[in-house]
Amino acid sequence: MVCFSRSNTDKISEADIVIIGVPDESKSHAKRKGTSKGPDILRLASNESDFFERNGKIIPILPMHGRLDNKHILDYGNVMREDLYQLVFDLVSNKKIPIVIGGDHSITTITLQAIGDLYGKIELLYFDAHPDFVSSARNYYGSVLTDSLGSIDFEKSMLIGTRAAEAEELENAYKVGLEIITPLDIEELGILKISDKIRSKNNNNNGKKYISIDLDCLDPAFAPGVSLPSPCGLSSIDLIYLVKLAVSTGIIGIDIVELSPDFDINNITAYLAARILLESIASMNINHSSKT
Q1: Among 125, 194, 244, 291, which residue has the least CB neighbours within 10 Å?
Q2: Which tens digit of pLDDT belongs to each residue from 181-205?
Q3: What is the pLDDT of residues 134-151, one digit of tens each?
Q4: Hey, which CATH number is domain 12-290, 2.30.40.10, 3.40.800.10, 3.40.50.720, 3.40.50.620?
Q5: Residue 273 gets which letter from DSSP?
């Protein structure tokens, strides 16, 4: 297994942020396979793209905004699907922020269940080309929201980047009052208006927010290496801007899923995923005095 080079502690007790790989695509129905390779390829891409070597020295790059020097990061390694629930439950119980790297998007169901069992219904920002709100089939990567009904406060949550929805998914979203932001909405309203919408959802949530990033929320021009590419997606900078904003207002956890390296082109999706990881960590507000 490849280790995330920015990992700077080997003790969970000292960590603020814990990176967990879940190389599992057992609940994927995609014809394009390979997301089980995602966790290690993302780590490798981070180690290649986030550092320069000059005069025998390894020099890390800095994020665009935010800080890394005040963060204690542990790369926990890869875990099996059946071990994810207890690990996330224990980490969140101890005020650690899990970053889960997939794998197919169904692993989000497990993470949300663990967090929901601890905190009740939470706010969810779900970046995805697809709503994953199928109810006519269950327990797969297309039914994440249906399978997580007991863990999500839908009126405080948002789907962002949605553009490949089935009719039943939209009906299910409307029934629960889930707001949908399409790429056309971002084009029409502008990124600042969308930012205001995200901020309005954050009122009085006390940091009880989870962010899930399916890389197919991006346009295939930026991220061809995904299971289900869909044209007319988000730009890379719009995604990073919105994620950094959401992270900076407080989160319980975050995941990055559906990297499919076999369909990538010159590793551009993997490098972008690594940048999303870097910028997300940099924007986290860590209060060490509140750690137990």
Answers
A1: 291
A2: 999 999 999 999 999 999 988 766 6
A3: 999 999 999 999 999 999
A4: 3.40.800.10
A5: H
